[in-house]
Amino acid sequence: MTYRRAFCALLLFTSPLAAQDTTTRGVRIGLTYDPGSKLGVVVLRGAGTGADSIRAIVQRDLDFGDRISVIRIDSPSDTGRDVVPNWAVLAKLGAAAAVQITPTPTGMHLAVYDVAKQTTALVREYVAPAMSDLRGWRAALHGLSDDIEESFTGTRGIARTRVLFERAKRIYVADSDGEQVVALTPTASVMSPSWSPNGQSMVYTNWQPPAHVVVHDLTTGRERTVFSGGGVSVTPVFSPDGSTIAFGHGVDDGVDIYAVDAAGTNVRRLSVGHGSDNTSPTFSPDGRRLAFMSGRAGHPELYTMDADGANFSPLTPLDFGENAYRANPDWSPAGQTVAFQSMISGIFQIMTINLRDLGMKQLTSDGKNEEPSWAPDGRHLVFSSNRSGSKQLWVVDVETGRTRQLTRGAAVRNPSWSPRLSSN
Amino acid sequence: MTSRAVALAVFTVITVGMVDACRKSPETVPVPVTASTPDDGAQRRADSIANAAAKRRADSISAAARNNMPAPVSDARTQTELTNTLAQKVFFDYDKDDLRDDAKSVLDAKAAILNANASVTLIISGNTDERGTAEYNLALGQRRAAQVKRYLESRGVSEARLTAQSLGDSAPVASGTDEASYQQNRRAEFEAHNAGTLVRPRS
Questions:
Q1: Which among A86, A422, B80, B184 could disulfide-bond with B174, CB atoms 3.0 to 4.6 Å apart, if both were Cys?
Q2: What residues does CATH 3.30.1330.60 cover in chain B?
Q3: Do A231 and B170 touch (CB under 8 A)?
Q4: A11 Cβ partners below 8 Å, 6+ apart?
């Protein structure tokens, strides 16, 4: 019964995808295949219950990774498990590789084919939760997609990641493909969720006075307050080693960057803002520096300092133009770039600044775009945008500018992209 | 009227009152003794000392009444008026926490009530319009509340009776996206506790 219901849910779920497939019926060489930069991959149809859903999800995962060109073909029938594919047809389609995923009683069976060599490159068995545990089943499948991407490109995909965000002042989480939206907090007064480096917990603030900083265990749902000091506490983030939480806090004399040990001890002030507002800290990947927003120059700009507060220096060049306003920095996982939002002609847009040459790049121009957060591949950013009419989350590939919508429904904001996840 | 003018007016009223109060006792201090017999003089001196003492006592009683006793009539209308004054919002300019003159006048009136009602505590909530980031706005709201708190402290209200907090842009009173709505939302709100029956301050 549960199984059946879950399966029906899955069918409902994937019906838009099926519709999408019918619109792209036939060979799409030349439309989506760019042999100069991307590897062409055909996802062959597998056999068995759920095989079509699996195929649709994996095709979408590989497509969203922006490193593989998914060649969509309308397979007339499944080829059967581990049946050697038709090399000539695949070569003609421009495919360098083909994959096939077949459901098994305990999970999935993956076969990867090298078209040029006409060999089976990889066969792997996956243990996955039953489809009745749709969230866990999908997580396992996303992990399989990431394995495929890694085997082809050398870089692990980001399908098995999740995004935290705020909706109506509660915190939610969604899979990287926008599915499996789950509410995580019951109270409607929380904001600024951010992942722990191991992906097993998050930190956020409850701004309802007296404001406090909360660590929430995503496995058990258990919560503990790590800081409560009156006034405001905003924008907490974990250090890359998970030992420290940095956040903005202030009572009577502006807001400064503070740090507290993850256990909730050893609170110390890091910035010296002299009554200005200092919020939104983000650690460099080595944990030695922090970028943050400060209003000390009269309007919000970005600055950096050592993780102990020393060696303060401006990051973004001071812009005293009308409406100058730069905020919400997020340090890229590779460390060379900081994403942020900047007021351009009176409207926030997503930008990046390269730490080597301080070159800035504008990534959005459609609507109001805010709160960028890096994916663990350092190539994609999730951000909030009102371009569709309501505030939703969107994902941009910073290399190509390709953009997709992640969330739908009631307005959302303040996304935080997870590290790569290994457990459900 | 600018707040400075208001402050000056308030100051003047208070000062005049104080001078008035002071003037009364010196008036009674020893009357000059002129060409009189020692006995007569001694008698007059004794009388004048007694008179002065009586007058001082009367003055101190009336002063005590003025300062400490409840207002003679604590009617509902007075209570409403005092409560409303304590709750009256103050407003700010865009992205600013500076107190405008209109805000200072409102705060002066609150300070007077707080100073006349020592048990009342006040929670000050800073609010912002929707522009800017939510996090920045929480910080800005806190700065506004803190600025209000500092001003009330400078008017003699003890720090322990005042709490500054921020709601950022989460509690707008006007939902429009025009300047008029934004102005209504850039504000500090006040919540009085232990108010009970309020005593009207003497001005």
A1: B184
A2: 76-193
A3: no
A4: A53
Burial A306-336, CB ≥16 within 10 A → b, else e: ebebeebeebbeeeeeeebbbbbbbbbbeee
Rounded to an integer, what distance in angstroms lies between the CA atom of residue A6 and that of residue A218? 23
The whole-chain average pLDDT of chain B stands at: 79
With a CB cutoff of 8 Å and minimum separation 6, the contacts of A28 are A71, A72
Decide if A279 and B136 are in contact by the 8 Å CB cutoff.
Answer: yes
Is the pLDDT at B151 greater than 90? The verdict is yes
Q: Which residues contact A341 (CB under 8 A, 6 or more apart)?
A: A326, A327, A328, A348, A349, A350, A351, A369, A370, A371, A372, A383, B133
Q: What are the helix (H) ranges across A122-268?
A: 134-153
Task: Spell out which residues of chain A touch residue B152, defining contact as CB-CB under 8 Å.
Answer: none
B96 Cβ contact list (under 8 Å, min separation 6): none
Query: Residue B63: its pLDDT value, please?
Result: 61
Comparing CA positions, the residue from B200, B191, B187, B197 lying closest to residue B122 is: B191
What are the φ/ψ torsions at residue A337 (nearest 5 degrees)?
Answer: -135, 145
Packed helices A2-23 and A51-64: angle between N→C axes, nearest 10 degrees: 60
Q: Is residue B126 predicted with pLDDT exceeding 70? A: yes
Rg of chain B over Cα atoms, rounded to whole angstroms, equals 24
A162-417 maps to which CATH number? 2.120.10.30
Structure token digits, residue B184: 């209504």
Beta-carbon contacts of residue A316 (< 8 Å; ≥ 6 apart)? A301, A302, A326, A340, A342, A353, A360
CATH topology of domain A2-153: Rossmann fold (3.40.50)
Segment A257-261 long-range contacts (CB within 8 Å, at least 24 positions apart): A257/A281, A257/A290, A257/A292, A257/A305, A257/A309, A258/A227, A259/A307, A260/A213, A260/A226, A260/A227
The domain spans of chain A are 2-153, 162-417
pLDDT range class, residue A10, cuts 50, 70, 90: very low
Mutate to test the interface with A, among B130, B135, B193 (most CBs of A within 10 A): B135
Q: Give the Cα separation of A284 and A159 in Å (integer).
A: 24
Q: What is the pLDDT of residues A383-420, one digit of tens each?
A: 999 999 999 999 999 999 999 999 999 999 999 999 99
The rounded distance, in Å, linking the Cα atoms of B178 and B129 is 10
Q: 3-class DSSP state for residue A258?
A: strand
Which of B123, B127, B138, B140 is the best residue to mutate to test the A interface, defined by the most A CB atoms within 10 Å of its own CB? B138
Task: Enumerate the residues of chain A whose CB falls inside 8 A of the CB of residue B138.
Answer: 207, 211, 232, 234
Nearest 5°: CA angle at A157, between A20 and A406?
A: 45
Distance (Å, rounded) from C-alpha A252 to C-alpha B195? 24
For the segment A218-232, what is each residue's pLDDT rounded down to a tens digit? 999 999 999 998 899
DSSP state of B161: G
CATH number, domain B76-193, options 3.30.1330.60, 3.30.420.40, 3.40.50.920, 3.40.50.150: 3.30.1330.60
CA A289 to CA A280: how far, in whole Å?
13
- My answer on whether omega of the bond before B38 falls inside 30° of 0, hence cis, is no
Residue A182, both tokens: 């789950």
Residue A208 is predicted with a pLDDT of 83
